[in-house]
Amino acid sequence: MKISHAGPSPLLWLHLLLLLLLAATAAAKVPAIVVFGDSSVDAGNNNQIPTIARSNFLPYGRDFSGGKATGRFSNGRIATDFISEAFGLRAAVPAYLDPAYNISDFAVGVTFASAGTGYDNATSDVLGVIPAWRELEYYKDYQKRLRAYLGDGKAIYTISNSLYIISMGTNDFLENYFAFNSQRRTQYSIDAYQHFLIGLARNFVVNLHGLGARKISIGGLPPMGCMPLERAQNLQNGNGCMEAYNIVARSFNDKLYNLTRDLNKEIPGLKLVFSNPYYVLLQIIQKPSSYGFQESQRACCATGMFEMGYACQRSLLTCTDANKYVFWDAFHPSEHTNKMIADHVIKTALYKFL
């Protein structure tokens, strides 16, 4: 009888290769979404602190699951909720300080964000909210709880493979630098203040990396001069966008992009991406009908010009269908817009982690 010494068939090799690729894909999977930032990504942490920067009341959350006002500054979900879902995780990322959730929930997604905060500690002081450094302290506490829950091995894997999202900076300009009687404006030119903030952003990423984070997204500023609140004050130009604020946003975004490039070169093993919402949101604002919207100058809440937070409460003027509006309140996008922004940053930046 003749014995064949031929190796595995090409079909078997292909099968083995596919198994290896599937294993590699599974190993690279993002086990959790961990979020830092301001009201763009706060899911209710401010509910637990003494501040007026809250939204845990209707009409906020009226389109959220169960019609619940969670503390998200939207009629429904925010961008990080959609990002979490796109990564095969939960459809909503809970707030770390929310007593309704525990470490079993946080093990797959958590936000430490606080509405009204920024990179600059002076920004968080304006509304008495959680500063960026405190968000990192909460993250350290989270790591201890995660180790106790998962065990050291699984916790280390989760920490190093999770996707970390940073979204802040708008308040540093609108609530701090450009605010009436701003102390920062007497200390810094606008360009110098941007460099100051970039230094703080650099430190935040470096500290986060030092705590074990490897996959990090740093978010850019939106066209903040086109927010309804800013347009309402631009009477001289027929309530058009405040172009001076948009110029600052673009300039700061360029600096954030350069920071991303520099840190990727400096820190071995770091995978830092820049997620830029500026141009997609500007396109939606400029051509709302092309994206299925009817209104981009005014928000859904109340008059749509000045109101957010408590000023939206009990208003008889609030729209009935927020999906027709680019903005939910005078400062924040609607759920429909949040979904479009999330889709955009996934396709242009976060796809590297999928």
Top keywords for this entry?
globular, 354 residues, five-stranded parallel sheet, alpha/beta
Compose a concise summary of this entry.
The chain has 354 residues and is an alpha/beta fold. 43% of the residues lie in helices and 6% in strands.
Describe the 3D structure.
With 354 residues, the chain is of the alpha/beta class. The protein contains 13 helices and five strands. The radius of gyration is 22 Å and the shape is globular.
Helix coverage percent: 40-55%
Please give the count of helices: 13
Main beta sheet: 5 strands, parallel
Radius of gyration: 22 Å
CA distance, first residue to last residue: 52 Å
Low-confidence stretches at least 5 residues in length (pLDDT < 50)? 1-6, 22-28
Along the chain, the helix and strand elements come as HEHHEHHHEHHHEHHEHH
Q: Please, what is the oligomeric state?
A: single chain
Structural shape: globular
Strand fraction band? 5-15%
Strand order of the largest sheet: 2-1-3-4-5
Structural class: alpha/beta
Q: How would the blueprint of this fold be written?
A:
Layout (H helix, E strand, L loop, with lengths): L9 H18 L5 E5 L41 H8 L16 H4 L2 E3 L9 H7 L4 H19 L1 H10 L1 E5 L2 H8 L5 H5 L2 H21 L4 E5 L8 H5 L10 H24 L4 E5 L2 H9 L48 H14 L6
Parallel strand pairs: 1-2, 1-3, 3-4, 4-5
